[in-house]
User: Which sequence fits this backbone?
C-alpha cells in the first residue's frame, strides 16, 4: 500500500522551525492495485525501477516443456515464454534481443499458479509469463498483455484405462493443478456436452506430481492445457476424446495493475505477433 508523505515539525532553540520530510514508503502489502515505491527513480514508475536495476525480473514455469522449462543439465531456462521475456527485457532496456540474451538481462524465478499473482503484487517480480490464462476475474487484479498463445484443455488417460468417452469420467479422479481454472472448465464442458458424469478432482502443486500420480494409479486422468500435456504424454497415455475441443486458454503476460510497464509489455507482444516472431516460436518449440 502507498503511505502519504508525512512532515514532522521540530522546534529547537529560539523557536526556529525546521521541516523534515520523509520519502514515500515502498509498498509491501498484498494489494494488487497499489503502486510501489523505489529507492531510485520515480516511485510510480516500474520502467524506471527496471532500468535502474538493469534486469527484468520474470516469473516463469520450470516444468512446462516448450513454454518454460529448466534444463537440469545446463541449469538454464528454455521455451517460448523464456524467449518472450528476453524480448520484453530488450524493449524495456533499449537493447536488441540478442544482446538481452547474451548479457542475461532476465532474472528468472519459477512460479506456480498459487504464487504468481502475489509475487507481482509485492514487487518481487516485474512480469509473469507462465501459461497464465487471461480471465475477466484476474483482469480485476492484474494487467494482461494481448494473448501470445491460445490453447485448449485436454484430459490425459492411460490407454489401458478402458475409458473411451467423456461419460466414462463418472466417479473417476481427475488430477489438476492448484490455483488453475482447469476444474471449472472440465465441469463446464461436461455440462455443455450434456454428459452425465460426476468426476472427483484432486489438486497437486505441480505438473510432474500429477503425472506421477497418474502413473501410480492414484488418479484416473490428468487435465491441463493440451500443449502442456504434450510434454507428459508417454507411449502408454493418450487424450480422452481429443475431438472434443473445449476450454480455450488465452495466455497473456501479467504485470502489476496500473503499472507503466504494462503498455510496453503489450506493445511488445503485439509487435511480435504482427512481425511473425511468435509463429516462428511455435515451430521452434513444437507447439503447433
Assistant:
Amino acid at each position: 500500500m502507498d503511505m502519504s508523505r508525512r512532515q514532522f515539525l521540530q522546534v529547537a532553540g529560539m523557536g526556529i522551525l525546521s521541516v523534515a520530510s520523509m520519502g514515500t514508503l515502498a509498498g509491501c502489502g498484498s494489494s494488487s492495485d497499489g503502486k510501489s515505491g523505489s529507492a531510485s527513480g520515480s516511485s510510480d514508475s516500474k520502467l524506471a525501477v527496471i532500468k535502474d536495476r538493469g534486469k527484468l525480473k520474470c516469473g516463469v514455469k520450470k516444468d512446462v516443456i516448450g513454454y518454460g522449462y529448466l534444463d537440469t543439465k545446463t541449469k538454464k531456462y528454455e521455451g517460448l515464454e523464456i524467449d518472450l521475456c528476453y524480448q520484453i527485457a530488450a524493449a524495456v532496456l533499449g537493447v536488441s534481443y540478442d544482446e538481452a540474451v547474451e548479457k542475461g538481462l532476465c532474472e528468472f524465478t519459477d512460479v506456480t499458479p498459487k504464487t504468481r499473482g502475489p509475487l507481482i503484487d509485492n514487487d518481487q517480480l516485474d512480469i509473469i509469463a507462465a501459461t497464465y490464462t487471461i480471465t475477466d476475474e484476474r483482469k480485476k487484479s492484474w494487467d494482461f498483455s494481448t494473448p501470445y498463445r491460445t490453447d485448449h484443455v485436454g484430459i490425459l488417460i492411460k490407454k489401458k484405462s478402458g475409458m473411451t468417452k467423456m461419460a466414462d469420467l463418472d466417479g473417476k479422479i481427475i488430477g489438476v493443478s492448484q490455483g488453475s481454472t482447469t476444474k471449472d472448465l472440465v465441469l463446464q464442458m461436461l455440462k455443455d456436452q450434456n454428459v452425465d458424469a460426476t468426476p472427483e478432482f484432486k489438486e497437486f502443486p505441480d505438473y510432474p506430481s500429477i503425472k506421477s500420480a497418474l502413473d501410480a494409479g492414484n488418479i484416473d486422468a490428468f487435465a491441463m492445457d493440451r500443449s502442456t500435456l504434450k510434454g507428459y504424454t508417454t507411449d502408454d497415455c493418450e487424450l480422452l476424446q481429443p475431438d472434443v475441443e473445449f476450454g480455450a486458454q488465452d495466455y497473456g503476460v501479467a504485470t502489476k495493475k496500473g503499472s507503466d510497464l504494462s503498455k510496453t509489455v503489450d506493445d511488445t507482444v503485439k509487435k511480435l505477433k504482427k512481425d511473425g516472431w511468435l509463429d516462428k516460436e511455435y515451430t521452434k518449440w513444437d507447439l503447433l
